[in-house]
Specification:
The protein is an alpha/beta fold and 532 residues long. It has helices at residues 3-8, 15-21, 41-56, 76-85, 101-113, 143-155, 186-201, 215-227, 244-251, 262-271, 279-296, 310-323, 369-381, 389-399, 405-420, 438-441, 469-478, 503-508, 513-518, and strands at 27-32, 61-64, 90-95, 118-122, 158-161, 164-167, 174-179, 207-209, 235-240, 300-304, 345-348, 353-358.
Length: 532
């Protein structure tokens, strides 16, 4: 290894990582939104703000968003290099909505060379109109699989070469994830926690909460993190200095995943009638939340807000530190539950937070006829002990590579297209999702659990119209007391070499992820014998 490569691969822990992993520290990040354009007022304002933050010495990292709201903006990766030159570490959002796995890998190589190593890995908001109209969403990876990729690069990935293989110089990424404790329905919330468990197993080094204002829900995330066996992973609370416009937007689900209750909105509307339009109230609320989060055991704060200044930030931090000693007295000022919202734990009426007693879950719904039919078919055909498993495997071996393969594949696609809205990816995940296709029924193609954008159980892309497919998956599995299966298996991304081929053949001949999981030996594809 040459000197340059050696210096680049040195495992120097970032200042942000040191703060988060230090039990006596409270790590602070401030979120910046680059805005649309290259050299506009928005981008210049971001750099001026970053320079001011660097001078304060109170911010461990500046967070840079990645196309928030799904609209184009200045690249977070490009802006990060400018921020780093100002003497403060960047923490960039890396989302899955616009880039496939190869482009994400390329991005990570560039970030390593630029010594940008603090990452917040997320699904990303559903893409919206660009200058040439609505873009094609990508969502090739999800946060779980992107964390796998980052983990491999951190270990020094083994890659093929003409002479065999070589091992890349290990990277030094410190990657965290987002999680929302603010969902309303049991199925919606449990899906978040099951996916969080997968993210931690995949290598997440820290967790950042979504935006919300319910102290009991913030406390719930801490308790659930410990219950999932990931209590050693630092948890960061999201503090948003909330103006009236943003409050109205979040209240009507205009920013997916960000929750403002009717009660809180009414208070902010009243505050906005003051001479300063409620600004000092906003700062005080953010400072009180800072104190509550620090007091209840969070490891850091992720601070943001529309048109927020460096002076606002310093006021929030300073006032928050003043109030931290009496944080318990402030808890009830953050009782903003969602209407009919479900909590994982029973309430502790003494503190206003949670007890350690899990709440009762709702009744199981009746098993639908469709689900029973798919379950029976699965036991017959796709379990090794099933009576049709052997015959189907032998049929697949006979058809594979023959003139009948095309007709066999078409027959399967017609059946699955009618029954499951199948998109013929060839690497079927329906065995992991209660026989519901995440490719056709989730606009973000999430194979490891729900994204954070649902609202009252409805899909981010189709609010009030289409229920999130992962809620349906949860209810189906819960009907048989098998809902924990959602968190058990980390589903890999689709291998697109299998696309538009028979998923039955791929399964029975050991070529897809489901076959690998149950130990079906892989049979190499036969050479095609010609068209049918």
């Amino acid at each position: 290894m040459n000197a340059l490569a050696s210096s680049r691969s040195s495992r120097v822990m970032s200042r942000y990582a040191e703060a988060l992993l230090n039990p006596s520290a409270f790590a602070i990040t401030w979120e910046l939104v680059p805005g649309r354009g290259a050299i506009e007022k928005a981008q210049e304002a971001v750099l001026i703000t970053a320079e001011q933050a660097a001078r304060t010495g109170k911010v461990h990292a500046l967070t840079i968003t990645d196309n928030p709201g799904g609209t184009p903006a200045l690249s977070a990766a490009m802006l990060a290099s400018d921020v780093a030159k100002l003497g403060v570490e960047p923490l960039i959002h890396v989302t899955c909505k616009d880039k496939n796995r190869n482009e994400l890998e390329s991005l990570l190589y560039g970030l390593e060379r630029a010594s940008v190593r603090n990452l917040l890995v997320m699904t990303g908001d559903y893409p919206k109109d660009g200058l040439l109209g609505a873009p094609k969403p990508v969502f090739d990876l999800d946060p779980v699989t992107l964390l796998w990729l980052i983990g491999r690069l951190n270990e020094g990935a083994e890659i093929p070469t003409l002479k065999g293989s070589t091992k890349l110089t290990p990277t030094s990424f410190f990657a965290g994830v987002a999680a929302s404790p603010f969902k309303v329905r049991e199925a919606e919330q449990m899906g978040q926690y099951y996916k969080l468990a997968k993210k931690v197993r995949a290598g997440a080094k820290f967790i950042v909460s979504q935006i919300g204002f319910d102290a009991r829900k913030f406390h719930e995330l801490l308790l659930v993190t410990k219950k999932l066996g990931s209590g050693q992973v630092p948890v960061v609370g999201n503090i948003y200095m909330l103006p009236l416009g943003a409050a109205r937007l979040m209240n009507r689900n205009g920013l997916p995943g960000c929750i403002v209750s009717n009660k809180l909105l009414a208070e902010i509307e009243q505050e906005a009638t003051g001479p300063d339009k409620g600004k000092q109230k906003r700062i005080e609320r953010a400072a009180k939340m800072f104190a509550v989060l620090k007091g209840m055991g969070y490891d850091g704060a992720h601070i943001s807000g529309f048109a927020m200044t460096c002076d606002d930030l310093e006021q929030i931090i300073g006032r928050g530190e003043e109030l931290a000693g009496n944080w318990q007295d402030l808890v009830r000022e953050f009782e903003y539950p969602s209407e009919d919202g479900w909590y994982y734990f029973e309430k502790d009426h003494t503190t206003g937070l949670n007890s350690d007693l899990p709440a009762q879950r709702g009744p199981r719904k009746k098993v639908t006829v469709g689900y029973r039919a798919f379950r029976a078919l699965h036991e017959l055909m796709f379990e090794k002990s099933g009576p049709l498993f052997g015959p189907m495997q032998r049929l697949s071996q006979a058809v594979d590579g023959s003139r009948l393969e095309g007709a066999f594949t078409t027959f399967e696609q017609v059946i699955k297209g009618f029954a499951n809205e199948c998109l013929h990816c060839g690497d079927c995940a329906m065995l992991d999702t209660g026989y519901l296709c995440p490719q056709s029924q989730c606009p973000k193609n999430q194979r490891n659990g729900p994204c954070g954008g649902s609202f009252n159980g409805y899909c981010e892309k189709f609010p009030g119209e289409r229920e999130c497919v992962w809620i349906r998956t949860y209810e189906r599995l819960k009907s048989e007391s098998k809902e924990d299966l959602i968190g058990d298996f980390q589903v890999p991304p689709i291998n697109y070499e299998l696309a538009n081929k028979s998923s039955w053949i791929n399964f029975y001949l050991g070529r897809d992820h489901s076959a690998e999981r149950i130990g079906i030996a892989k049979v190499p594809p036969k050479k095609k014998s010609g068209p049918a």
